[in-house]
Write a structure and sequence with these properties.
By secondary structure, the protein is an all-beta fold. It has no helices and 23 strands. The protein has a domain of 223 residues: Tachylectin-2, Chain A. Bound molecules: beta-L-arabinofuranose. Beta-L-arabinofuranose binds next to strand 2 and strand 17.
Length: 323
């Protein structure tokens, strides 16, 4: 599959997190809507209110919409904005992790549980203790440990935290200072809490130097994803205001990760966000763009394309603009 394929045409969907459960592909996207809220740098226009979950048996097969799996009106601690989610399976239960602003307009990460990958999901009464910011991604390592990666700048509020504590007047570091990094923490056995204090997901350049805050073409902005290929850990992410999907490679789930390159060049729209999945011996990049909505940044459409590696394990860059 060298051509990109849009997956759904009757809803706007973004930030697709794809997993194989029970031999099928399940996709956990955000559900974009026309909220009427003007566009701004804090992402207020992304005022999403529910999640639909999709599945397909083949990469080019029919896509099934399983309907509303979780609605903001059923989340007791909800303020607004259901952003990028992810799902993990353990001991017969599926755990949906989602970022949502609480009633004080602070992003927290919530958990909802189901016995089926497509839901419906029942949310817990409170967000995860010590959680903050956005874009949770849960990675299952070969030894059975689950790790959550999270964080996002600007509207994602990551700049308001240092050492897992909220700071006053949170700002990004100066251009020549180390960048802010995503966070990672092992999950507790019951999958409901962090089992440890979240740590920085450090990204270094080819000389082992920490990426700098002013390095907008390479530094982390949002959209963490982790996959393993040939025994190496690939941490991929969006650079936000430079609209690239990049990746960095490490030897363990905590990093440090060494910056390696661009997976996807800019797409139509401001945000870019993805997941990477192996299915039946091939690798795929799930992502989104705003072509079908005529470029409206808050109305995105998820799509999939094959992802290829070079013999040295590097990823072949995909052109975001071509079909
Ligand atoms: O969908 C809302 C936000 O836009 C996501 O959480 C970010 O990663 C960006 O794609």
């Amino acid at each position: 599959m060298k051509k990109k394929r849009y997956l759904v045409d009757n809803l706007y969907t973004a930030d697709p997190a794809a997993h194989v459960f029970n031999g099928k592909i399940y996709i956990y996207p955000s559900h974009d809507i026309e909220s009427g809220i003007p566009e701004n740098d804090l992402g207020d226009h992304f005022d999403m209110r529910d999640y639909h979950i999709f599945s397909m048996e083949e990469i080019d097969g029919e896509v099934t919409d399983h309907g509303v799996a979780l609605d903001v009106k059923n989340i007791p601690w909800a303020g607004r904005q259901l952003w990028d989610s992810d799902c993990a399976f353990k001991n017969g239960k599926y755990y949906l992790y989602f970022p949502l602003k609480d009633k004080t307009d602070i992003f927290r990460i919530g958990v909802a549980i189901s016995e089926k990958p497509e839901g419906p999901f029942k949310p817990l009464d409170a967000p995860m203790k010590g959680s903050y910011s956005i874009d949770p991604c849960v990675f299952l390592d070969d030894d059975g440990s689950y790790y959550m990666y999270f964080g996002g700048l600007w509207g994602g509020q990551l700049q308001r935290y240092r050492n897992n504590k909220a700071i006053e007047c949170g700002q990004e570091p100066k251009d020549d200072e180390p960048a802010l990094f995503a966070r990672v923490a092992k999950l507790s056995d019951n999958m409901l809490e962090f089992a440890e204090e979240p740590r920085d997901v450090i990204i270094v350049d080819e000389n082992g130097e920490l990426l700098k805050a002013g390095d907008h073409e390479r530094r982390f902005f949002e959209a963490s994803w982790v996959h393993k290929y040939n025994g190496k850990y690939y941490f991929s992410y969006s650079t936000g205001n430079t609209h690239l999907l990049c990746y960095a490679v490490g030897d363990n789930p905590y990093g440090p990760f060494t910056y390696k390159g661009v997976i996807l060049t800019p797409v139509v729209g401001w945000t870019t966000h993805h997941s990477i999945l192996e299915f039946k011996g091939k690798w795929y990049l799930f992502h989104h763009d705003c072509k079908p909505s005529g470029g409206k940044t808050w109305l995105r459409s998820m799509k999939v394309v094959e992802l290829e590696y070079n013999p040295d394990g590097s990823i072949k860059t995909i052109d975001g603009m071509t079909d």
